[in-house]
Amino acid sequence: MMRKLAAEFVGTFTLVLVGCGSVVLAGFGIIGQEGIAWAFGLAIVAMAYGIGPVSGCHVNPAVSFGAWIAGRMPTGEMLGYWIAQCAGAIVGAGVLLVIASGGPNYSLAQHGLGQNGYGLGHSPGDYNLISCAVFEVVATFIFVTTILGVTQKNAPQQLAGLAIGLTLAAIHIVGIQVTGVSVNPARSLGPAVWVLGDAIGQLWLFIAAPMVGAALAGCAFRVKLLSEDD
Prior knowledge:
By secondary structure, the protein is mainly α. The chain is about 75% helix and about 0% strand. It has a single domain, classed as Up-down Bundle (Glycerol uptake facilitator protein). It contains eleven helices and no strands. It starts with a helix and ends in an 8-residue tail after the last helix.
């Protein structure tokens, strides 16, 4: 179990450092929205093959929740994953802050850490709460459905990491202007802990909405609606 938790810590640490780092250190003016999307997607591909054999590479409390609802994960293991994932995200965002703070023009208050947000001045495209909530629920449903689908029996396991990473990249290409894309409560928690203020005040949405989307996906597999497993 400790190896699984260590893997989830490292995987979530990497996702936040690389994904949010692409926003903070390279950003829209250098690599653009597509570059940021690929940074998140490729981080997942790397970790899927790097730590997947150890923990399954959930690196996301919503993914673990969906797997639990689908009947693929015991409760105690899910709770342990949540702790490791959140810790990894917080440490990853903290390391990113240390790196970014060494730059001559960086300000935490002005530039943040790639935190998610909704509404005027917080959503990259100033999308309102309803739009952001709907996006996060639907995008997480799609993401967790992909994960549960490509890891079920008879699915091509060798391609699972690639399919999952490409799905996350596609979701980011579509949704960065809406919320900055969470689909992962730990990914949202990590930067918010350091940025504080409105990032913490709006964090509830990026915990609740991904969990709802993951629950819907998990239920679809639990009742065999989308599952090939007997």
